[in-house]
Amino acid sequence: MRRLGGVLLWLVCAVLLASPASAQGTYPNRPIRVLIPYAPGGLTDVVARYYGDYLRKTQGQTVLVENKPGASGIIAIEELARAKPDGYTIMVGNISTNCLTPVLLAKRMRIDYDKDVQIIARLADTPVFFMATTVNFPPKTFAEFVDYAKAHPDEVRYASAGVGAYQHVNTEILAKRAGGLKLVHIPFKDGGPGILKDIAGGDTQVSWFNVSNSVGMIKAGRVRPLAVAADARLPAWPDVPTIAEVGFPGFRPSQWSAAFAPAGVPREIIDKLHAAFTEAARTPELKAIFEKSGMFAPVDKTAEDARAWLKNEMETWRRDIADAGVKVDSE
């Protein structure tokens, strides 16, 4: 009897230990939630839906995109970190929410970002314009903007997607490098759509904005690009100088998006998701969409490569932020 009990106990343990492996082997077998830290319509939301549609088609499961805006991405990040680490809750974030927020706003989080969140894959990168409104704002070049801001301290308002967002950090770094410009920060929790609408209306004067989503407003004459953060001038915008050409070499505020998961998701699932995202990035359909939108997909060979890239990215921003003396405690 005692021997039978021992055998039964061994069988129970074997089943329990085998269950995760079995679940991983059939992943995914139910809908996947994708958290977005912004309201619908912005670049990160659009990128998430591109890739989510590919996952739906190739993995045979429903992909549920859920928008969780607010708190500079912390709401979505904390929900991700607390989700069951089974691969059925992931997040598509960007440079602001998943790089700058953990660097600048770690004390506001109720999680340990470095321990509780892991990157799956990079998804998209896009050049960004430094743009100005055309409504009651005289500067037509970057040099004119700098001169105007120096002559009108605390009058020029710049928009961002929130405290600690890349527009916020980039502008503060730029202001210091341009000789200590005194600008007024106006954050928006709904991200890009709010920023673009506000600049087009003249309520704020300048900001950084991705090329793909700003084309319509530029062509309508409601905003004008003063510089582009890219290695070279864009073929579609040959008259817009690079940020290096206007006097700021080494300034690299490109906007990237990436997929993330809770820490503890098994390696097999992370690898499967990474492979799916990589396959999507290489499809002619997605390449065509990205090229038309001024984006490209930076493909890492493995999830480990993506982790190494993100670590370096965060360390670089920490140095830049420290050098510029960017503070967020009072905002």
Number of strands: 10
Sketch the major β-sheet: 5 strands, mixed
What is the class of the largest domain in the CATH system?
A: Alpha Beta
- Helix amount: 40-55%
Mean pLDDT: 87
Shape: globular
* Helix-strand topology string: HEHEHEHHEEHEHEHEHEEHHH
CATH architecture label name of the largest domain: 3-Layer(aba) Sandwich
User: If helices are DSSP runs of H or I spanning 4 or more residues, what is the number of helices?
Assistant: 12
State Rg: 22 Å
Strand order of the largest sheet: 2-1-3-10-4
Distance between the termini: 69 Å
* Multimeric state: single chain
Give a written overview of the molecule.
The chain has 12 helices and 10 strands. The chain folds into 2 domains: about 30-125 and about 255-325, D-Maltodextrin-Binding Protein, domain 2; about 130-230, D-Maltodextrin-Binding Protein, domain 2, CATH 3.40.190.10. It has about 325 residues and is α/β, with parallel strands linked by helices. The radius of gyration is 22 Å and the shape is globular. The protein has helices spanning about 1-25, 45-60, 75-80, 95-105, 115, 140-150, 165-175, 190-200, 210-220, 265-280, 285-295, 305-325, and strands spanning about 30-35, 65, 90-95, 115-125, 130-135, 155-160, 185, 205-210, 225-230, 255-260. Helix 7 (about 165-175) packs across helix 12 (about 305-325). The strands form 3 sheets. Strands 2-1-3-10-4 form a 5-stranded mixed sheet. Strands 8-5-9 form a 3-stranded antiparallel sheet. The protein has a two-stranded parallel ribbon with strand order 6-7.
